[in-house]
Amino acid sequence: MNTARPDSIALFCLTPGGVALAQRLRDLVPLTCFTSEKLLQPGFIPFGGSFARTVEQAFSEYSALVFIAATGIVVRVIAPLLNDKLHDPAVVVMDERAEHVISLLSGHLGGANELTRQIAQLLNADPVITTATDVNQLAALDTLAAKLDATLLDFRQTVKTINQMLVSQKRVGLWWDRDFTQNAESYDTRGFIPVDNLDVLPALDALVCVTLRDDLPTQAIPLYKLVPKRVVAGIGCRRDTPPQTVAKLLNQQLAENHFDPLALRAIGSVSLKQDEPALLELAQRCQIPFNIFSVDQLAEHEKRFPASEFVRHTVGVGSVSQPAAWLMSNGNLVGNTLREQGVTITLGVSDRC
């Protein structure tokens, strides 16, 4: 998702007062500061051609944009660039006297609300946040999803439905699968009704379940799965294996271990396979990283697993899928390795958000 990262924030200032505030703020927060040629100060970057053109470029390169400017100017310059809440960066606007910090765009998923609070606290300013869940001091499903690095089927509509239910004082339950109960209290769940047992539900209008499972007991109320992206797959395959073969076998392996396909976080293989069409297509279709490991990296863990001399002769190490999955999951492998049609797939579960 597009959550704002501290190392990826661009700041734009248009006046001498804005430059002074930017200088003050960048001592507190990692920022890349842009301004006009005539206002340029050491460490600032001049607009590339124009203010609007620079903003357009930054919109796709940074996870957050902070403007020390009038809100109307910012709205006009970003309006042609807007895509959707899943991809647009966080946009925060503040006045040059640092009286108000406004969360303008991507408040939840993009992290603009959180960034607004952070900047306002640093500058002793007034944070202006207008999202309904925040105004009503409630959690938001999209914020919870971002914190968990999780996703849902029909993400946009589901988030809209659940958040609307929360602000309408509907009874929305929240159940955490056993893999996530230990850290559940560290997340903002205000407004959700805790559910401990799926077999004995309190009176609810809907239920959200945080789980990796592909199947849950049928309920009499609407049930929505919030699926953290934790599953990794180490994959080895013969050269030019058809993409549909790899995809089918991966889905088979996920189903065998009762994982929801949405839980897939990344795939990985040996460096020799970095241009393997089937793996590149799989990563692109699932919109997940394709992690590449050198022979030396895999060889460090080769002794943990059965080795194939044919594989060693072909790629330089006796096993690919198992050590790759081991590295991506920090040793937390799950189930048996699949070996079919010249493809090997090993699954692991990462504990990282």
Automatic annotation (TrEMBL):
This is Cobalt-precorrin 5A hydrolase. Residues 140-219 form the Cobalamin biosynthesis central region domain. Keywords: Hydrolase. Transmembrane segments: none annotated. It comes from the Bacteria. InterPro entries: CbiG_hydrolase, CbiG_mid, CbiG_N, CobE/GbiG_C, CobE/GbiG_C_sf, GbiG_N_sf. It holds the Pfam family CbiG_N. Residues 54-134 form the Cobalamin synthesis G N-terminal domain. Residues 231-347 form the CobE/GbiG C-terminal domain.
